[in-house]
Design a protein that fits this description.
Jelly Rolls, Arc Repressor Mutant, subunit A, three-stranded antiparallel sheet, 18% strand, allosteric enzyme, CRP-like protein Clp, cNMP-bd_dom_sf, transcription regulation, DNA-binding
């Protein structure tokens, strides 16, 4: 599942991905608001469970009271990981050029569970549009950078398939 922020003009930036066992909406535990700052978009079939703020709070005070410290620690750890990922992304946007951002994004994707082992490295399935949303550039720029990286022998890109050489 992609977590996305969108500008008023429709441009999108992918902030990250959620995988199996992760949770969303954890800020609602601490900040009550009907307004959501991000968009969630599934990348494959997902099964989701939902619990409201009041219900979870009541459970943490009653039936789950013994497990509350562990649950809150898990929530805090996930928020911390996401904050770290967001800080890295902000630094990359501020200090790296598009080529370096794309290279780093591809290496990050190579660590995701969906990445597949390949005899020459790691095979990724990512469109140029998705890559552009990850690094904050146009789809055309992402395509030009992939073409250059392929010419430089760093990867092979065809359609939505990218083989990142020398990884795994």
């Amino acid at each position: 599942m992609s977590i996305i922020t969108e500008e008023e003009d429709g441009r999108e930036l992918v902030l990250g991905y959620f995988g199996p066992g992760e949770f969303v909406g954890e800020l609602g535990l601490f900040i009550e608001s009907d307004h959501r700052e991000v968009i969630l978009r599934t990348r494959s079939t997902c099964e989701l469970a939902e619990i409201g703020h009041e219900r979870l709070y009541d459970l943490l005070l009653t039936r789950l009271s013994l497990d509350a410290p562990k649950l809150l620690y898990a929530i805090g750890a996930q928020i911390s990981r996401r904050l770290l990922d967001t800080s890295r992304k902000a630094g990359r946007l501020a200090f790296l050029d598009v080529t370096d951002r794309i290279v780093r994004a591809l290496h990050d994707l190579a660590k995701e569970p969906e990445a597949m082992s390949h005899p020459q490295g790691t095979q990724l399935r990512v469109s140029r549009q998705e890559l552009s949303r990850l690094v904050g550039c146009s789809r055309e720029m992402a395509g030009r950078v992939l073409k250059k990286l392929q010419a430089d022998g760093k990867l092979h890109a065809r359609g939505k398939t990218v083989v990142l050489y020398g990884t795994r």
